[in-house]
Amino acid sequence: MTEHDVLVVGGGLAGLRAAVGLADQCDVAVLSKVHPVRSHSGAAQGGLNAALGNAPQAGDDSPEKHAFDTIKGSDYLADQVAVLQMCRLAPQVVREFEGWGAPFSRFDSGAVAQRPFGGGGFPRTCYAADRTGHVLLHTLYEQLVCRGIKVYDELAVTRIAVADGRCHGLVAYDLKRGRFETFAAKFCVFATGGYGRAYRNSTNALINTGSGIGMALAAGIAVKDLEFVQFHPTTLLGTNILITEGSRGEGGYLVNRAGERFMARYAPQAMELAPRDIVARSIQTEINEGRGCEGGCVHLDLRHLGKTRIVERLPGIRQICIDFAGLDPVQEPIPIQPGQHYSMGGIDTDVRGRTSIDNFYAAGECACVSVHGANRLGGNSLLDTLVFGRLVAEDINARRGEFSFKPQEAVLRRCLAEQTAQLESMFARGKGLPHYQLRESLRAVLAEQVGIFRHESAMTQAVEQIGGLRQQYAAVGCCTPLGPFNFEVLQALELEGLLCVGEIIAKGALARQESRGSHFRTDYPVRNDAQWLKHTLARLDGSQISFSYTEVDTSQHAPQARTY
Description:
FAD/NAD(P)-binding domain; Flavocytochrome C3, Chain A, domain 1; 3 domains; 5-stranded mixed beta sheet
């Protein structure tokens, strides 16, 4: 058994920011499925929102206006005090990364450059060309190295050891050695990312299996608002590689097969810079109604920006198009289609990252504070990870007096025995039912029946089908001998949680008889504040999923019509 004061699970921005904030006062270690600089945070392209007022058009921008845009963008499902806290800390986050040497793009004046993003009233998205997540991740990893923080990479956590309402530590699968190990801690922080790989067409990395959310459910922790799934409007046709919203922030046009800028029909004032849920539905409507381009897409046209601006501001996007689509956006439009991108819902936490288990925290995309509500604005996800990773660290540091808690080795041994028994039963079934067949079935059901447009009849079938897949999981077998880099074992184990997440998405969406943000029902196309201005909570009771609802904090702004 290995022991630390604090274990942080996840090597992305939320996890690293929490670890850096803890390092001066605690013995903290990071457990990550991949090396930290390969975490999915590095795929974020567009930017980081903060009301700095650097852009010429920024006028009298403020954290309070940033908060209002976020609340409106969330379709009034975000908890407003949490949003305000995030937006007020945003300028500090940018200054902190400037101090750490993050190479932000800059205006001629030397100020951090800011571009407009969808749903924002001001150009407040700070960026580093179109590689912002990559830049922030490497900057933060440097701080990790400077502080000598221990990193266990290529190590996948599979279970949370809980007894008497406390987390005693974790069971993890060491990919390099092909064996399970136990880790004890006084506090645990999950920053494990989203569940994008539950969907067939996703911008998410292969590691985004919702494993942290699944483990939290299994440990008795509630998850919140999983039915709200963000579909990014612009992913590269055929590969679903992200094409940043910064492309539209720089002035790119969305056009249909007739060359028409069709967003004038759906968001005449904001046009291409409407919030993501609106733009994604607009694109899919053009495709569904026969105005799309060949292959089931529309075009993102950057040609009018000119080569100089594309090379300076969007070099990564240009290279992606050359490498994966065989076209140069300087000369040709980019074929794009919507793809699953982000999870607004996640592990239920308060603004400090605390969950219902006193010494267990969550932050980043795996958590739901809630600051994104029913729809996240672009540029707020990087901010979310850094703000709440920091707040988690501050809260744990303030609780150092509770470090007298001694995690029990017996609890960890029992958890390890349960994990070993589960795996042995899979090996006993040999080839059994291949895990990938169930996973592909789940991805198809969610993509086709719980996607951008939703309807009762399709979702009723989805709930039934996913329930059947969960029952079939008992027949999943493993046939590759346990050893180094046995990904069959990991994928088979993670599938159990992913199926549970998929069923919660479908059941939550079926129950919510309204349209709000990313959740759009063709049979209930209007937002219903009287009945559905509330958060969805889901828990596991044995193997059964139960639902309850809690109030939304609307203390700052009363809900109003959401037009752009």
